[in-house]
UniProtKB/TrEMBL annotation:
Name of the protein this chain belongs to: Medium-chain specific acyl-CoA dehydrogenase 1
Acyl-CoA dehydrogenase/oxidase N-terminal domain segment(s): 12-91
Natural source organism: Ascaris suum
Domain Acyl-CoA oxidase/dehydrogenase middle, residue spans: 97-195
A Pfam family matched in the record: Acyl-CoA_dh_1
Amino acid sequence: MMGNCNIEFITSFPWDIVKKAHTLGLMNPQIPAKYGGAELSSLETALVVESLAYGCSAIQLCIMGPSLAVAPVLLAGNEEQKKKYLGMLAAEPLIAAYCVTEPGAGSDVAAIKTKAEKKGDSYVINGPKAWITGGGYATWFFVLARTETDPKTPAGQAFTAFVVDGDTPGISRGKKELNMGQRCSDTRTITFEDVVVPKENVLGAPGAGFKVAMGAFDTTRPGVAAGAVGLAWRALDEASKYALERKTFGVPISQHQGVSFLLADMAINLELARLVTYRAAVDVDNKERSSYYASIAKCFAADTANITAANAVQILGGNGFNSEYPVEKLMRDAKIYQIYEGTSQIQRVVISRHLLQKVATTGTAG
């Protein structure tokens, strides 16, 4: 388990830690052994993520962030693509980035404007991608682009998925964003201007990119949930240790019911978030369609991380509001879990849709 990782204001990417993680086999651990990876199960990967996030969720994101780009290659890549792009990540501590979000298209993926025009045996990609994790250092990108110009074309037929080499001419990487939390993570705008990509770099079939991009989330959301669980775990530990030591009215504040009940609720939610996260991960391992439990895990764990971190700040009082203690950082780091890889509101859309379909089909939600 990692200790405190207070590199809040370091602007450079923490390559020393990332390289050590790769040496230990902690980067992209889900890559199959045949391509040089550790081939950990989704559950095993969740355990790794949880422990890394306990130490620092930003460092965890730097180490495990490429997993989102890896997922669609695992899902839809052909053998040659897997050998090349997964193999290079297994061999060296390299970064890959998932390019779907745009300045005007986040939760509404169907609103993507980036275009890929077929020209001979290649595609030419034009458009900006926003909030790209690891974008400044990515060796290759997963890119979702519109290949059908008719706006009435259904999303399931309008987009194509690509793997784009990071050194392809026409790719520009914007400045590193200074975000509210998880500050050592690299987040940038990536712009594609007349970027020529060979047809061999299409993932899956042309026009099937939306399914590839969305299908990846079913396998990666349990990992995101695990990161939130790790952060909540750390917040509960910090609050509990402080409550045992800090005294008011002659006794440790842990003996005051207002504090002890707050800690109890934090523990309840942590254990529930952990259990549903593991359930979602096991579904992935069992090759079961996991949209329902993946979204429940991601949503509940994200909300739990935010509530637990905020309560930790409250228990520490003025000290919790001060950067000398880690809980204010945990509170800031927690917020992004309700935003990236599908907002908590989008998760509820997915959950309710699957719930109602199940009840309509089987007559029960159980």
